[in-house]
Automatic annotation (TrEMBL):
InterPro entries: HAD_RAM2/GPAT1-8 (IPR056462), Plipid/glycerol_acylTrfase (IPR002123). Its main location: membrane. Keywords: Acyltransferase, Lipid biosynthesis, Lipid metabolism, Membrane, Phospholipid biosynthesis, Phospholipid metabolism, Transferase, Transmembrane, Transmembrane helix. Belongs to the GPAT/DAPAT family. The lineage of its organism: Eukaryota, Viridiplantae, Streptophyta, Embryophyta, Tracheophyta. It is found in: Membrane. This is Phospholipid/glycerol acyltransferase domain-containing protein. GO terms for biological process: cutin biosynthetic process; phospholipid biosynthetic process. One of its GO terms (molecular function) is phosphatase activity. It comes from the Eukaryota.
């Protein structure tokens, strides 16, 4: 009866998303993520304050009413494109952290795969198709008014019956072979009644022990401000901390700007931050010699700043773009380049003739344990190259986003209760590892990327800056930066839940 095609069974499978493909069966935290990243702090707080009501409705077996309430508060007044943007850029990382690998092995071993979710389809579809390789995603559908705004209501009168009918429409000719769902479900009242075999999560491995050859693609790029999935407890901590974090961030930025370099690291420790230094930093250049080019991977906006803090001297940094606010409070010299190869090469050579310089050849930040492909330009310009592997840890807020107001990146980083940076100075590249020995710039860049990845325990990728923005914006890889006035408007709208 079992037919195999390229290691994949010819069976069809229909699986629940929450509580089955995901370990958690409570979608509340995902609606909290949507509320924060699509709208802002006020909607986030409103949804959190309604959590006791939502929980009570669930306990009283009014789960559909609880779901409708979450959907309404999290989505009313938003554009559907904004919800889709959060689903594409923010949610996948948190979904991936919550995946049940046992269920995934069963699900991925089947040829035709259908995912059923009680959440709005737009919140799940992108992830399920790209990472689970689902053929169909069945979920609730949001109502959108004639002006393009989501009303917060859903089209389904009976959510379970609607899911059952739509699964039946997908499998017109033959019943799905395998249904995956929570063991507590009554199969006769859900789409599982259509399946030949119903495999509760706790028993599914007995029905299907075939190991799939498919592997989950990792989430390399993701966006959004929140580091942790906002369960009710974590969301409450974030909400309580927010005003204190703003004050602390202002204090940290102020003292980091005005104090001499020799005192900055002490001030950071006193104010709760931590800088861990490994390796031996090189001494400043001798008179008449070209400066050292510090080549760093790029984790956040403050990489060059904290490198200068560790070196206890100002080292100019090469940047592609920087917000006006960040530039005002930046105590190091900023050297802008234009992404025009010949012009940028002349600029960097000129700066190296004056002294040391910091460059991040990834060209963009990456939060996950991966390295974006290094631009080879730095390898063509000097043989005095010192790789510096950097990593940062943030408790509540990510310091860099694509969708958010980039002028606030440095503010959010220093809002974390205990921001931590680890800076590892590697040995200067020997002459035989540079272009002067006949190696190509690409070979040198790839070598530097590999030794950094080995030091950090990261993985190298061939993704570029354009790939990141293509994935996160859904466009052609280009990114347009907002004017100061547009950024200010976007910032104030962030705190208005119905401004979008």
């Amino acid at each position: 009866m079992v037919m195999e095609t390229s290691g994949t069974m010819s069976y069809s499978v229909v699986s629940e998303f929450e509580g089955t493909l995901l370990k958690s069966d409570d979608p509340f935290s995902y609606f909290m993520l949507l509320a924060f990243d699509a709208s802002g702090l006020i909607r986030f707080a409103i949804l959190l304050f309604l959590w006791p009501v939502i929980k009570l409705l669930g306990v009283l077996s009014f789960k559909n009413a609880a779901l409708r309430l979450m959907i309404f508060v999290a989505t009313a007044g938003l554009r559907e494109q904004e919800i889709e943007s959060v689903a594409r850029t923010v949610l996948p990382k948190f979904y991936m952290d919550d995946v049940s690998m046992d269920t995934w092995r069963v699900f991925s071993s089947c040829k035709k795969r259908v995912v059923v979710t009680r959440m709005p389809r737009v919140m799940v579809e992108r992830f399920a198709k790209e990472y689970f390789r689902a053929d169909e995603v069945i979920g609730t559908e949001l109502n959108v008014n004639r002006f393009g705004f989501v009303t917060g209501l859903i089209r389904e009168a009976d959510i379970d019956q609607s899911a059952l009918n739509r699964v039946a429409e997908v499998f017109v000719d033959r019943m799905p072979h395998l249904g995956l769902g929570k063991a507590s479900l009554t199969a006769s009242t859900t789409f599982l009644s259509l399946c030949e075999v119903y495999a509760p999560v706790s028993e599914k491995s007995n029905h299907h022990n075939q190991q799939s050859e498919l592997r989950l693609n990792p989430v390399v790029f993701h966006d959004g401000r929140l580091v942790k999935r906002p369960t009710p407890a974590i969301a409450l901590l974030i909400l309580i901390w927010f005003p204190f974090g703003i004050v602390l961030s202002v204090i940290r930025i102020f003292w980091g700007t005005v104090l001499p370099w020799g005192f900055k690291s002490y001030a950071m420790r006193i104010l709760g931050g931590q800088i861990i230094v490994k390796g031996k930093p090189p001494q400043p250049r001798e008179a008449g010699k070209s400066g050292v080019l510090f080549v760093c991977n790029h984790r956040s906006l403050v990489d060059p700043l904290l490198l200068s803090t560790v070196l206890k001297r100002s080292v100019p940094a090469i940047v592609y773009s920087l917000s006006r606010l960040a530039k005002i409070f930046c105590p190091i010299s900023i050297v802008r380049i234009q992404r025009i190869r010949d012009v940028d090469a002349k600029t960097i050579k000129l700066e190296l003739s004056k002294g040391d310089l910091v460059v991040c050849p990834e060209g963009t930040t990456c939060r996950t344990p991966f390295l974006v492909r290094f631009s080879a330009l730095f390898a063509e310009l000097t043989d005095t190259i010192v790789p510096v592997a950097v990593n940062c840890r943030a408790g509540f807020f990510h310091p860099n986003t694509v969708r958010g107001w980039n002028a606030l990146d440095i503010v959010f980083f220093f809002m974390n209760p205990r921001p931590c940076y680890e800076i590892t100075f590697l040995n200067q590249l020997p002459k035989e590892a540079t272009c002067s020995s006949g190696k190509s710039p690409h070979d040198v860049a790839n070598h530097v990327q590999r030794i950094m990845a080995d030091t950090l325990g990261f993985e190298c990728t061939n993704f570029t800056r354009k790939d990141k923005y293509r994935i996160l914006t859904g466009g052609d890889g280009t990114v347009s930066y907002l004017s100061f006035q547009e950024q200010a408007k976007k910032f104030f709208n962030t705190f208005n839940p119905f401004s979008r």
